Amino acid sequence: MEGKAPIMRRSALAAIAAIGSASLFLAGCSKADDNKNENGNTKSAGANAATKGIVNVSDKKGGTVTYEMADVPDSFDPGNTYYAYMYNLSRLWARPLMTFKPGAGQEGNTLVPDLAASKGVPSDGGKTWTYKLRSGLKYEDGSPITSKDVKYAVERSNFARDVLSLGPNYFQQFLAGGDKYKGPYKDKSDKGLSSIQTPDDTTIVFHLKQAFQEFDYLVAAPQTAPVPKAKDTGVDYVKHIVSSGSYKFQSYDDGKQAVLVRNENWDAKTDPLRKQLPDKIVVNLKVNPEKIDQDVMAGDAIDLAGTGVQASTQADVLTDPAKKANTDNTYGGRLVYMAINTKVKPFDKVECRKAVQYAIDKVSVQTAEGGPIRGDVASTVLPPDIPGYSKSDVYATSGSKGDAAKAKEQLKACGKSSISTNISARSDRPQEIDAATAIINSLKKVGINASLKQYPSGKYFTDYAGVPKFTEKQNIGLIMMQWGADWPSGYGFLQQILNGKAISQSGNTNLSQYNNKDVNELLGKAIGTQDTNERNTLYTQIDKKTMDDAVLVPLTYFKVLLGRPQSYTNLVSTAAFSGQYDYLNIGVASK
């Protein structure tokens, strides 16, 4: 998952059947009413407090929670998004079958039922999964939520790729008959995909073409949040989303702002997770990054994208003890890397790709991103906090500063003395641009001349880097990327960036366009393997094979430095959403 820091950073944890609201109050967490100094002013819980527990625990209702973002999300439509922060935020208006428990760090990786009454029941060796919905579920208009609405949501999000292309297509890949079904907009019948069955209004059954031992994680994606077919308007559904969560849209101004208010037909009896605390939730878009930092540190906003304070703010925050006390620095379970486009010559040749690997001074990239506090120098596809990781450095150089001699040697083996190409980065991510600039400087020293092309985050995958024809036409051989697991396993991290079947003509996240038969087969074998240790060994093999083929350059194992707004309650940095704060139950404290 992109932003992904990531669909995220974890070790697999056992799913549990349900979570009571009391479990939100972890031992050692600070309560909002205890968090005052002798003058009655809010005092800090301390640096990294939200990585260890929930800060300012409170059930206080009222007020407005404000989120700010420098660009725009890919989409507010739960069936058409693929950024970790939107997976996180969308749970306020869209309830998937399963989700993650609000909790600090790895505690946040605990999978719990949401729309479903309990975790999935597998049969046929993991090829069939059955879920029962909770009783009494309603949309914002009071109409009942049924299993048919969940079925339809999966069909529209995975099988109408010409209309909704931004999210992953796992269901299309793994459901029986998924390769033939054309989606609900072209399907003139009401039957839909036969491998998703709804024997009654509270039961949904998924029939897969192969065993999928991590299917509970898959249905935690917002793609399983129900959508009433009669209200679906395709790509325009984003303008009038029908809420199944605790909040609904009061207004939506495309590219500028979204305002959510309480959903009066949400029933706490059907939902042990959500608290519905603030009166209003405001999402402001296209806000200057430095202004976001100022608002966050003043306690007036949350950085929606969760990428942390800007480099220009970082030094000021870290050298001021009072400001540093209101920050959280944690691994995001993601990898910052550069994809090498195997369809753009001469990077179709492995030797040219290896030349890039050896040429890059990764320390300069780390420095450009903000230093060690922003991440450790990386050498593998899997980050250290994802199952299957094994320490390795196939293209080791002294001090990780690059090796011009080895790079030129590989360039010669490729039949080249120089290469001219382009490198893409997101225009609203200053640190990504700085990292790309550092890479350009490294490559230039060995005869690889790369020019920077900048594109906005909101359309990076729909119109630019994620459109293979565009990258090939524009000679974009190198693509900046950041990735986190879609769920906490090696498969959840690797599938969408390495499997040839994941390559899409728009919204593509396999930016290298890597289609290796052995890797594809290993991924398929892994997800059908019941033994966890054996499964993790296969993920390690996939990592090694990918690095041998040199199709991406690991740059840093991402760490985020979040500013923690003191005026908000229930703040906890969660592994499930790239180290971001869990957005489900944030409230407003008295000021």
From TrEMBL:
SUPFAM superfamilies named in the record: Periplasmic binding protein-like II
Residues annotated as signal peptide: 1-32
Gene3D superfamilies cross-referenced by the UniProt entry: Dipeptide-binding Protein, Domain 3 (3.10.105.10), Periplasmic binding protein-like II (3.40.190.10)
Keywords, comma-separated and alphabetical: Signal
UniProt GO MF annotations: peptide transmembrane transporter activity
Residues of the Solute-binding protein family domain: 110-502
PROSITE patterns from the UniProt entry: PROKAR_LIPOPROTEIN
CC per GO annotation: ATP-binding cassette (ABC) transporter complex; periplasmic space
GO annotation, biological process: peptide transport
Entry keyword Signal: yes
PANTHER family membership: ABC TRANSPORTER SUBSTRATE-BINDING PROTEIN (PTHR30290:SF83), PERIPLASMIC BINDING COMPONENT OF ABC TRANSPORTER (PTHR30290)
This protein's name: ABC transporter substrate-binding protein
